[in-house]
Each structure stands twice: as C-alpha cells, then as structure tokens.
Design brief:
Blueprint: H1 38-55, E1 60-67, E2 70-81, E3 86-87, E4 94-95, H2 100-113, H3 145-149, H4 172-177, H5 194-208, H6 212-224, E5 242-244, E6 247-249, H7 257-260, E7 263-264, H8 266-280, H9 290-296, E8 310-311, E9 316-319, E10 324-332, E11 335-342, E12 347-353, H10 359-368, H11 400-404, E13 408-411, E14 416-422, E15 425-430, E16 433-439, E17 444-451, E18 454-457, E19 461-468, E20 471-478, E21 481-489, H12 494-497, E22 502-507, E23 518-525, E24 531-537, E25 541-548, E26 553-556, E27 567-572, E28 576-581, E29 584-589
Antiparallel strand pairs: 1-2, 1-12, 2-3, 4-7, 5-6, 8-9, 9-10, 10-11, 11-12, 13-14, 13-21, 14-15, 15-16, 16-17, 17-18, 17-19, 19-20, 20-21, 22-23, 22-29, 23-24, 24-25, 25-26, 26-27, 27-28, 28-29
Helix pairs in contact: 2-5, 8-9
Length: about 600
C-alpha cells in the first residue's frame, strides 16, 4: 500500500526513474487517438496482457480503457481462483489498496463544498484530539487538513502495530500518532503517509458523525451506482484469491481502511473514473462541483521544497506546459490497482491484478500510453528547487570558516555522507567512495571523482547545500533534476546511548503479510559516531542512520524514501530495555 520509492545513492550513475519504461510495438505512439484507431489500441492491449500473464507469472487481472468519455474496452484475463479455474472477469472484486486515498480526499473535498471544513485550516480546528509530540521549530498549527491530503504534514508514514482489521480499527491510528513526534515541519517535505490518511478518515467521522465506511457508501458508491464496491466487512461476493511467488496467499484485511480498504470490480472502477472525469468537465455535479474537481486536479505542492512527485489533492500528477494527467496506484497484500486519468481528453486507463508480480506490468501499461496524450514519465517529477548549475570554470575561493559550516554527517534513509574539511577543501565520503567538492558559489560545489592522484569533474552535476526551516540539506543537481542526499545530522553523545547498544528481539504484535515479518533490531554506533539501526525481517535487513531527538526518541533518517521518517522509541522496563519502530516492539535484557 505504501508508495515506495528507491533511494538514489550519490554514487549511482544516471537518473532515477520510478518505473521501468518498456516501449512496446505500437504502444504509446505520439498521436491523439481517434475512434478509428481504437481497434488497434484494443488489440495491442489484449496482446500485451496475454503476454504478461505468461512472462510475469500473473494469475489474473482485469483492465479497461476509457476514450472520449466512453468505456471502449474492458476485459478480464487469467483466473480469479487458480485452483477452481474460476476466470478473472470485469466482475471480479479486488482490493484497490492506496487508490482508496482518492476516495478519502474526495470525501474531504465534499465536506469543504458543504461548508463543514476548510482544508487550509489547522487539523486541530476539527480534530482537537490530534496532539502528537512537538519540538521547537515544528508548530502543531501548521498541520492543516490540506497537508494531510498532500502527504506534507510531517506525520510518519505508517503505524504497523495492530495493522490488520482483526486487531485494530482505523480510528486507533490517531492514538498511536499522538505518541510520536512530527518528523518535519508541515510543508517541508513530501512523506507518503498511510497514517495521515487514516487520520483523515477519523476527521470525516468526527465532522459528519458518520463512520467513514458509511460515509463513502452513501456519498460516493450510492451516488455513482457502484453496487459491487465496499470494504472487507461488507461481505462482497466475487472476490478474487490473491497470489505471490507462484502460490496462493492468505487474505490480509487492513485496519487502515481510509488509506487502503476499498474493494471494487472493473465495472465499478470505470464508473468511478467516469464520475471524476465528468465532475472535472462540468458534465455532472453528482460527486463534486466542477470548481472543486478542478481544484483537486491542480498541482498543490509546487512550493514544497523536498518533493519527489507533483501532486493534486489526493492524486499524483503528470504535468507539462500543455497538458496533465492524474494518477494513483495501490497495493494491499498482493493485489495491485492502477488508475490513470487524462481529464482534458476525457480518457482513462485502469488495471486490477490479484498477483504480487503483476504490479509492474499494470503500471507499464498505463505509462506506455502517456505519449498518446502528450506526456512523458519525467512530467511526474517536480520542478527543481535549486538554481541552474554554473559552468565548470566558474570556480571560486571560499574561506575555511564558510567551508567549515558544511562539515558534518548528511543522513540518507539507508546510508550517510561524511563531509570533511581537508587542506582547505571539502571532501565527501560515502563508504569507499570519495569526492572533492570545489566551490562555484557560496553554496554550490562541482564534484570531482578521485582516481589515484587525479580528480575528474562531474561536469553535468552540482552539489548544493541549502538551509530549509532550520536544517541544512544536501542536494545533487543533475541536469533538470534535484536529488536529496540527506540533511545535516546533529552529533550525539555516545556515552548517553552506550547502554542501549545491542540486539533487540521482536516480541508482541507481528505483521501478518509476506516476508515483512520482523525478527530483530540492532542498535550500534558506526565508526563515524553515527547512531545506526539494523532491522532484520525474515527475508532481508535494512540499516539506517538515526536522528536522536532526546534520550528516548529518535527518527530514522532520510527524506521521501525507504524507512526514512519513522519514530524509534526507547523505554525502560523492569527486566528489559525496549525499542519500538513504527509501533512494533523489540526488547533486550538489562
């Protein structure tokens, strides 16, 4: 369900892409589709999915295409139940995961239309029980309703404790978040937050005095006639089985219904897409007034300095000077859903799949069609917030006092960069790699690779130090893209943390899905005196620098990616020291 994005290492060559772009014969031609071309598009789509079922080991999926405001094609492929050979059809119900967030955002905007709330106001105006831990420079009243919709509130990504529907309720998330610190000041960074959207569900409940499930049924499903849509507790028929790695997997019902709990079939999914298109185009006000729909489909995060994607309200956004598209993906358990809307063309592409391995094929299908509508994958990325890079020869001399202000540790989600001052030059070290940084302005540096006694400039790159809301961030600028390489990490006193070092074994509530079950957490100090946490699951391990807030709280470092931005809480018990990560508990004996 979470919107995972790969972290970009400083020493990785080339640009970061969020998807694998596969150009298929005839797919994504740079043309505007006319009715007589639809037969070719349909044939190409059917061939594509038939091939992907075989090559990607997908058990079942359904897909649809909307052109000119009409469903021109929808079809199921493979099986909803492989054992009984039940076909996957457009009537097969699938969990759409995080596409649920578009319904939650829609619900909030309906409430704004009715005058029940103003998304620009602090969340506490309508939800006074929201009171997470704060610290200097992170005011609570800057957390507006809008910042939750755009994932810029500073609320951590997830709370995994009691995250299945049998163990918890979506309204429990607020209480968990009230025990954590806001990660960043609101508006500083895009940090995808399932927890934030469940708090929006809580907000909808409190403002309307109607449970989130009943609200969505009454004000969206019933309005649109989505009779085969609902939530896990609704007992929907025709639900698919789910698959991963060639095996049928156990159902996993999410507690977090406001961020990932909706189930639907392709018939209803296309009805929803048409409803949003009609609202935007002013053809129907059943869901929203046209002005509200157009607000949702307008970029809302252009002023957020640390972002990875353009966003509307509840949607990701491809946008260039000529046109735009709205997009959301979802994954819950092992199902996937993809929804791409092209409002100005009254078009959409939709995919549902019941197999973990099907997510990439579904996304590629949508993204390969972007050129048909005058768009490209890079149109998803925000405009850089750093300035245009200078020329290689524009080197300047800076005083050691200026250079010293940049010395320190810059923490990413899974590693860190060490910036040192040596012989009047800044040196950046990450593991065994080293760069010499030569200034071209007071904040901008040209990086040079060290090859023996030689230094070789990376002429197409700049490293830029920038202060944002009290923190110094390090950016890499490559052509027209910014990459965040972390923020300056405050030094810690190793003696304060020495008795907490060691291995903590997992106990208590465990995640109930796939190989994401956690085994242990190890706290240790790196050779550079950076507090580090190593998390081990049944199938992998991750290491992350920690940003210590005080003796009992730390944050996993990094911005926008990986495990960055999660509270790590330390407590003392009579027999054990305990460590909590995203609500999961670990302990070691005294």
């Amino acid at each position: 369900m979470k919107d995972s994005r790969p972290a970009l290492s400083l020493f990785t060559g080339g640009l970061l892409t969020l998807v694998v772009f596969i150009a298929l014969p005839g797919f994504g031609q740079s043309r505007y589709a006319q009715p007589d071309t639809y037969a070719g598009l349909i044939a190409e789509s059917e061939t594509y999915f038939e091939d992907k079922l075989k090559t990607d080991k997908i058990v079942g999926l359904s897909a649809a295409i909307i052109m000119d405001g009409k469903v021109i094609w929808k079809k199921g492929f493979g099986y909803a139940d492989q054992q009984t050979k039940t076909p996957m059809t457009v009537n097969t119900v699938v969990n759409i995961g995080s596409v649920t967030k578009t319904f939650t955002a829609l619900s909030v905007m309906q409430l704004e239309e009715r005058g029940l709330l103003d998304i620009q106001k602090p969340l506490t105006t309508y939800l006074p029980t929201f009171h997470p831990l704060t610290r200097p420079g992170i005011p609570l009243d800057s957390v507006t309703v809008k910042t939750l919709i755009t994932h810029t509130s500073g609320i951590q990504s997830d709370v995994w404790k009691n995250s299945d529907l049998g163990s918890g309720h979506y309204t429990d998330v607020l209480g968990f978040i009230n025990q954590t610190h806001l990660v960043y000041p609101a508006g500083l960074a895009g940090l995808y937050s399932n927890a934030g959207y469940n708090i929006l569900g809580h907000l909808i409940r409190d403002v309307t005095q109607t449970d989130y499930v009943q609200y969505v049924h009454k004000h969206i499903f019933t309005v649109l006639g989505m009779t085969h849509s609902g939530f896990a507790m609704d007992g929907l028929t025709n639900r698919t089985k789910i698959y991963a790695y060639g095996q049928q997997a156990n159902e996993y019902e999410l507690r977090d219904i406001a961020s990932g709990g909706i189930y639907t079939d392709m018939n209803d999914f296309t009805t929803y897409a048409l409803g949003m298109l009609q609202a935007y185009r002013g053809e129907s006000t059943a869901l929203l007034k046209q002005a509200t729909a157009q607000k949702m489909f307008t970029q809302q995060n252009a002023q957020v300095p640390l972002e990875t994607n353009k966003k509307g309200l509840g949607w990701f956004m491809f946008r260039n000077d000529s046109t735009f598209a709205m997009y959301h993906a979802g994954s819950a358990g092992f199902t996937h859903a993809k929804l791409l809307l092209i409002p100005d063309r009254n078009a959409a592409l939709l995919v549902l799949t019941n197999t973990a391995e099907g997510g990439q094929a579904a996304e590629t299908f949508c993204f390969n069609e972007l050129p048909r509508f005058g768009l490209r994958i890079p149109d998803l990325f925000p405009t850089p917030t750093t300035h245009l890079v200078g020329k290689p020869q524009d080197l300047v001399t800076l005083a050691d006092s200026t250079l010293t202000s940049y010395v320190g540790i810059y923490a990413e989600s899974n590693s860190y960069n060490v910036v040192k001052l040596t012989n009047h030059q800044l040196i950046l070290v990450n593991g065994g790699q080293k760069l010499v940084l030569k200034p071209v302005s007071e904040t901008e540096f040209l990086p040079y690779d060290v090859k023996g006694a030689d230094t070789i400039p990376r002429v197409e790159q700049r490293l830029i130090f920038r202060k944002l809301k009290g923190k110094t961030f390090l950016f890499r600028r490559v052509n027209t893209r910014d990459y965040n390489l972390g923020y300056w990490l405050r030094p810690i006193d190793p003696h304060i943390w020495s008795n907490r070092m060691g291995i903590y074994e997992h106990y208590g509530y465990q995640l109930m899905i796939g190989d994401s079950k956690f085994k242990r957490a190890e706290l240790y100090m790196s050779a550079d005196s950076v507090l580090m946490l190593r998390l081990s699951t049944m199938g992998s391990s991750s290491e992350m620098p920690l940003d210590a807030i005080d003796a009992n709280y730390a944050l996993s470092s990094g911005v926008n990616s990986g495990f960055g931005g999660v509270n790590v809480i330390f407590r003392e018990a009579p027999l054990y020291q305990t460590l909590e990560f995203a609500g999961l508990s670990f302990r070691k004996p005294h």
